[in-house]
Structure formats: structure tokens, C-alpha cells
Design goal:
With 117 residues, the protein is mainly alpha-helical. It has two domains: 37 residues; 73 residues, no CATH class. Helices cover 75% and strands 0% of the residues. Helix 2 runs antiparallel to helix 3 and helix 5 crosses helix 6. One of its GO terms (biological process) is protein folding. InterPro entries: DNAJC25-like. Keywords: Chaperone, Membrane, Transmembrane, Transmembrane helix. Its main location: membrane.
């Protein structure tokens, strides 16, 4: 059954004859076999679109992680905490809805404060 698949058309028959005539070129013959057997089944456009989708997903995850790290760093730095607190006070007209001990802001509040400026 397997031999019939190799010898079914002229091109694969020629590759088979070449492999028999040149056994020292094992890697070349193996590459030719796999190219003939698997190479023509996949459309290059679909491969390119799939690759771009995967790379875009990795890029999105990377940017999201870097953004979250930057927001966390801004929240941890004392100078930035004080500035964010002052900007919130300025934005709200001098009054806050938060308790005195709770100065932690979430990332959406930080974005809103910086977008208003």
C-alpha cells in the first residue's frame, strides 16, 4: 500500500529512482520525500495568516504585561503616589470619596486622571 503511494505518479517515481541510485544522500532524499508528501497540502496564505495571528497574540500579551508592570511601578513609587493623590484632589475639586487611609488607585482612575490633563 505504501509503495503504491510513492509510485503512483511520474514525479514521485523519479524521486524514488533517484533515492535508490544515490543512497549516500540520505538527508536530501528524506527532505524530497517529505516535501512531496506534505508540501503541497498547506496553502501559504493560511500559514502566513496563522503566523501573524500567533505573533499578534504574543505581542498583545507582552504589551499588556508591560503596561501592568508600569502601572504597578507608578503606584509603588512614593513621589508618584503623592502626585496621583494631588491630581485626584485637583480633579475632584479638593474633595475625595476615598477614606483617608486608602490612597491606592486602580489603573482606570490613573488613566482618567492623566487623560483629563
Amino acid at each position: 500500500m505504501f509503495g503504491l503511494q510513492i509510485l503512483k505518479d511520474k514525479a514521485t517515481r523519479e524521486q524514488y529512482d533517484y533515492a535508490i541510485a544515490h543512497p549516500e544522500e540520505v538527508f536530501y532524499n528524506t527532505a524530497r520525500y517529505y516535501h512531496a508528501y506534505y508540501g503541497h497540502k498547506t496553502d501559504p496564505q493560511y500559514v502566513l495568516v496563522g503566523l501573524l495571528l500567533i505573533l499578534s497574540g504574543f505581542q498583545y500579551l507582552n504589551q499588556s504585561t508591560r503596561y501592568n508592570q508600569a502601572v504597578a511601578m507608578v503606584k509603588k513609587t512614593p513621589a508618584n503616589k503623592n502626585r496621583l493623590w494631588a491630581l485626584e484632589l485637583e480633579h475632584s475639586g479638593g474633595t475625595t470619596t476615598k477614606k483617608k487611609g486608602s490612597k491606592q488607585m486602580d489603573k482606570y482612575e490613573i488613566i482618567l486622571i492623566f487623560q483629563d490633563k
